[in-house]
């Protein structure tokens, strides 16, 4: 049963532009699927090349042949943006196999809720959640995980959950990567333990330019009380400061390292949009 929320007048199935009608039939996939979510801002698919690179890696991991090249997918994305006249919204790719065993690539606009401006100015509340994601490097569709996370976020009344594994170590956010600041250095869980987020990659690029050391290391839960700053990164959230983890207040909003990374990321997005105007 498909639970995807498809928005806008059109979606794409492989290379076909299809009208999104009430009660219309969406594709049904057999077996495991991979997905990718891309943020469209001002009609530009932000960091599309990075997303496509990750999407192709996910597809290869599941041995799902992609019925398209990266270039042709890029053309399709901009066809769909134009057809739906979208300024800002999330675009979703799902790749899987139909009942006949054929590869199917479904591209559509999906429900998009972005953090309000005050979350960037005041920071967000988060909570710890003891759950482990299987295959953390790959964007697999897993409805059981999504349901558990949504329920917990609602119960705790927080914007994001920080996942804790069996070693009492923080691995990532439920839909984000997480970074902590101590002194003038950043700490984040190692690449093998997390989904390699595109915004995470951009944070590494910023820190490389700024000569801010990043330590990829295990983050024990007891570190929280000594954190001088913390933030999450993700496609729908950009670089979003954390002001609270459970009952512990984090002085992120006074941290110059976090403020610099937030400003640099915003500039990176602005420059990308400028270079990719269609």
From TrEMBL:
Its cofactor is pyridoxal 5'-phosphate. One of its GO terms (molecular function) is transaminase activity. PROSITE patterns: AA_TRANSFER_CLASS_4. SUPFAM superfamilies: D-aminoacid aminotransferase-like PLP-dependent enzymes (SSF56752). Keywords: Aminotransferase, Pyridoxal phosphate, Transferase. GO terms for biological process: carboxylic acid biosynthetic process. InterPro entries: Aminotrans_IV, Aminotrans_IV_CS, Aminotransferase-like, BCAT-like_C, BCAT-like_N, Class-IV_PLP-Dep_Aminotrnsfr. Belongs to the class-IV pyridoxal-phosphate-dependent aminotransferase family. This is Aminotransferases class-iv signature. It comes from Trichococcus pasteurii.
């Amino acid at each position: 049963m498909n639970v995807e929320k498809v928005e806008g007048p059109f979606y794409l199935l492989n290379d076909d532009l299809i009208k999104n009608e009430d009660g219309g039939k969406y594709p049904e996939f057999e077996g495991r699927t991979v997905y990718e979510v891309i943020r469209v801002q001002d009609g530009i698919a932000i960091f599309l090349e990075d997303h496509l690179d990750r999407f192709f890696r996910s597809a290869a991991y599941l041995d799902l042949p992609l019925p398209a090249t990266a270039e042709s997918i890029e053309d399709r994305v901009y066809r769909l943006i134009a057809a739906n006249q979208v300024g800002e919204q999330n675009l979703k790719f799902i790749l899987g196999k139909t009942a006949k065993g054929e590869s199917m690539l479904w591209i559509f606009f999906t429900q998009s809720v972005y953090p309000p401006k005050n979350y960037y100015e005041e920071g967000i509340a988060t909570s710890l959640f003891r759950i482990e994601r299987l295959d953390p490097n790959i964007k697999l569709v897993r409805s059981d995980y999504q349901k558990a996370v949504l329920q917990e976020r609602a119960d705790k009344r927080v914007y994001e959950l920080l996942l804790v594994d069996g070693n009492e170590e923080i691995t990532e956010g439920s839909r984000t990567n997480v970074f902590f600041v101590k002194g003038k250095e950043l700490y984040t869980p190692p690449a093998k333990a997390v989904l390699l987020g595109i915004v995470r990659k951009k944070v590494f690029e910023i820190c490389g330019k700024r000569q801010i050391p990043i330590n990829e290391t295990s983050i024990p839960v007891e570190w929280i009380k000594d954190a001088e700053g913390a933030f999450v990164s993700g496609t729908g959230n950009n670089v979003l400061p954390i002001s609270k983890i459970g009952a512990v207040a984090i002085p992120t909003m006074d941290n110059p390292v976090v403020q610099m990374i937030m400003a640099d990321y915003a500039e990176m997005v602005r420059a990308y949009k400028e270079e990719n105007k269609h």
